[in-house]
Amino acid sequence: MKKTFRLTTLALVSATALSASLSSCGDTSKTSETATTTEPGATTVDSTAMLSDSARMGKKEGVLVDNVPMTPDKNIVQNAVLAPSVTTLVKAVKAAGLDETLSGAGPYTVFAPTNAAFDKLPNGALAGLMKPESKEKLKGVLTYHVIQGRLLAQDLRDGQELTTVNGEKIKISVQNGKVMVSNGKDAPVNIQTPDVISSNGVTHLIEGVLLPPPPAS
User: Fold this and answer.
1) pTM of the entire predicted model
2) How distant is the alpha carbon of residue 196 from its chain centre?
């Protein structure tokens, strides 16, 4: 009789434990599906959908650049061609044959020099890059401004190094809340307008052109 009572009690305890374990697993699964936030300053490269990025921005209507809305239903190039302050970049991208790439699925993060940024280059530098015989060099400069993946301003940390599509690295610095980017040699340039969300990535307008290091001899 006592033996039967012990066996029955043990069975009930085991069943209760198993039920609690399964319930706990169900709760964990549910939590993992909904808890997708990232700590500020953490580096993330994700390929989440357009609406998720828009939610992170908190601006479903997009971002104004030159008083023109840059909206997440357009790709990077489609948004860029609407902004008067980046016409030089758009021309350069087309001359380098990168417009189709930056219209593709991505996702990409683009540090986009403004027209004023290109004006800071030495006299004749831009004209030289735009020549047909300089196409590969121009492509190298432009891809030095592109990161594979999707990085918002909140993902950029002081001292961070990012590998570009060019293959070389750029460096991030944060001072007094301002995010800047550099080639590690020249003075860092400010991000003028961050987090311009497109369907295939994010663009940060910057105040200077990043020149990649010369190829090793």
Assistant:
1) 0.73
2) 10
Taking CA atoms, 60 is separated from 73, 87, 164, in Å, by 10, 25, 29
Here the tokens at position 99 are 């417009």
Instruction: Pick 48 or 61 by higher pLDDT.
Output: 61
Question: What's the whole-number mean pLDDT along residues 59-68?
Answer: 81
Residue whose pair of structure tokens reads 């209507």 in the numeric block: 61
Token code pair at residue 151: 């990085």
Beta strand 108-113 pairing with 201-206: parallel
Rounded-to-integer distance, Cα 17 and Cα 95, Å: 67
Give the whole-angstrom CA distance, residue 15 versus residue 152.
48
Please report the sign of the dihedral spanned by the C-alpha atoms of residue 40, residue 58, residue 199, residue 50.
positive
Instruction: Encode pLDDT of 118-171 as tens digits.
Output: 999 999 999 999 999 999 999 999 999 999 999 999 999 999 999 999 999 999
Give the contacts of 183 (CB within 8 A, at least 6 positions apart): 144, 168, 170, 171, 210, 211, 212, 213
Identify whether the C-beta of residue 93 lies closer than 8 Å to the C-beta of residue 142. Answer: yes
Could you tell me if 72 and 195 are in contact, meaning their C-beta atoms sit under 8 angstroms apart? Answer: no
In sequence order, which residues have a C-beta less than 8 Å from that of residue 74 and are 6 or more positions away? 198, 199
Give the pLDDT score at 217: 56
Strands 68-70 and 108-113: unpaired
* Vertex 83 angle, CA 160 and 137, to 5°: 55
Instruction: Report the C-alpha gap between 210 and 118 in whole angstroms.
Output: 10
